[in-house]
Amino acid sequence: METTSLDRPGPARPTRAGLSQLLNLLRPSFTRHRLRLAVGLTALLVVDFLQLIIPRIIKHGVDGLAALTISRDDLLRLAVLVIAIALAVAGLRFVWRYLIIGFSRLLEESLRNRIFSHLLKMDAPFFERHTPGDLMAHSSNDLAAVQMACGMGVVAAADALVMSVATIIFMLHIHVELTLLALLPMPFLAWFTRILAGRLHHRFTTVQEQFSLLTEFSRSAVISIRLIKAYTMERFQTAQLDRLGRQYVKSNIAVAVIQGLISPIATLAGNLGMLIILFVGGRLVITGVLTMGDFVAFISYLAMLVWPMMAIGWVANIVQRGLTSLNRIHHLLISQSALPDIADSGEPPLVRPSFSLRNLTFRYAPDLPPALDAIDLEIGPGIHGITGRTGSGKSTLCRLLARLYPVPDGRVLFGDRDVNTLAPAFVRSHIAYVGQEPILFSDTVAANIALGRPEATEEEIVEAARSAAIDDEIRDLPDGYATLVGERGVKLSGGQRQRLALARALLCNRPVLVIDDGLSAVDVATEHEVFAGLRQRFAGRTVLIVSNRIKMLSLTDRIVVLDEGRIVCAGGHDELLAASTLYRSMYDKQMRPQADEKGAAG
Ligand SMILES: Nc1ncnc2c1ncn2[C@@H]1O[C@H](COP(=O)(O)OP(=O)(O)OP(=O)(O)O)[C@@H](O)[C@H]1O
């Protein structure tokens, strides 16, 4: 028998894609903003050049002073020149920061948009393989690492390259041997920075992990405060928080140790070079090979070289980190939905669509038993009840109709066409879906109802609420339909939330309504009212209600009983009472106590 299943290996560690594949992800942004980048990099190079000129001006002044050939006016002119250059450096620094860092933010935004629109296309199995934390990491840490590499990474790389090459040329120009000697400690500085930056990254990742553990712990403790109090868990929770807090402090101290090492090592390398200049360069001045000005300029150049040498190690690390993150983003973007990749052609919606399930077998994973087993079912206009024990496959059936999971070819037909030949969005656009857990957004009641049709009028919203039997209760809220609900608003009861979600689905006015146990928290009297509203509103259309409430099921046109993924019986309420032992036992459990109570009262 042909079945479908989802190969769900879990989020494996991604293999490294080719460099050109990774760079292809960045190319569109680099191309689009090439002018911005070119101007930014030019400003950066001009800053470098201007900085290199300052020691030469100072050399001129010192030589003049040493030979007593310089006038006060000359000195003033040199000072003004230095200030003018410093001002130009400050202005141009602002320009390159604005342009290049701005570019990295634009690149980050475009990658984020790409990731987000890709996620919107993915199917349910994808979201089961990737946890929300996983996906959040892509849209925060990984994007930040790429942004860093393409912003400060580009700046530091260009800066370090130009500054080190130019500074060394200027130094060589003064004295070749002295330059080579003074540069001796520099490769060690680059090497140390590289090693320390690597460790720093590692420790910093630990800090971030500890921080997210701590925040997640505090978040879940705050939202489950009632449970904690009910189980008198306060002490235990405090001890847990204390433990996490101590780990967090420890990992922060580990970061501080590395950060504390970097600067002294740089100073040490600079001072070693300085020592060499003092010792060797000083002798060259005494012997008249170098002028006093050359000597001072040489010291300034060496000081300027410390930063590029540190930057080389630092850049190597952030580029490596950026590539690792880019690799993860690449793997996310190449992951494919198992649903057919067919774009919605804009075909007009079907007026009275129906579903035909033909010998459909479905498993969530190859090693799991089938969640649906050889299902044959016609779902056309009318109100259909789906019932069965927990885990019998009711929700799975609804999810497959809503095209959240892939199905094998020819097993599910929609309006006589195989769903695999249709755009998933086309099929979904016919279905209003009410799930088991209603989700409300932090917005007004009206906006929550109008989620699927933001353009709906006030009258339409009220009418949908009335059909879902929630209108009166909404009017009793402090601001009626304008009341804020959700996380930061008024808290609604489970039944109210479910009816709000139902009103949202009703407002969409689609030809098929699927309610997956979405009325379980609604009391029996209100359930009747809701059902009457549905009957009237959906006359001639298709409604599928998953429920285990016999009273609700008895009102439907036809009931399908599932057990272990199979249809064990289908028919009207009376028919099933006679034909299905499962249905009969559900009826007995739910209706007998009432009958017994009535009998006892009589
Ligand atoms: N995402 C999933 N991954 C793996 N197995 C799943 C998944 N969802 C459901 N199942 C399994 O598939 C079977 C059918 O589950 P389903 O949720 O469709 O049952 P149900 O009849 O709706 O149950 P309930 O009445 O408790 O909601 C169960 O064995 C369940 O454990």
Descriptive terms for the model:
membrane; Rossmann fold; 3 domains; ATP hydrolysis activity; 10 strands; ABC1_TM_dom; 602 residues; elongated; alpha/beta; ABC transporter transmembrane region fold; six-stranded mixed sheet; disordered N terminus; binds adenosine-5'-triphosphate
Please give a structural write-up.
This protein has 602 residues and is α/β, with parallel strands linked by helices. It has 3 domains: 19-334, Up-down Bundle (ABC transporter transmembrane region fold); 354-430 and 515-530 and 539-602, P-loop containing nucleotide triphosphate hydrolases (Rossmann fold); 436-509, Rossmann fold (3-Layer(aba) Sandwich). It has helices spanning 19-32, 34-66, 72-121, 124-129, 132-174, 176-182, 186-223, 225-230, 234-286, 292-334, 394-401, 424-428, 445-449, 458-467, 471-475, 494-508, 524-537, 550-554, 573-579, 581-601, and strands at 355-362, 372-379, 382-388, 412-414, 417-418, 431-434, 512-516, 542-546, 558-563, 566-571. The protein has a 6-stranded mixed β-sheet, with helices on both faces. It has a 4-stranded antiparallel β-sheet with strand order 2-1-4-5, covered by helices on one side. Adenosine-5'-triphosphate binds at residues 128, 364, 368, 371, 388, 390-396. It is a multi-pass membrane protein.
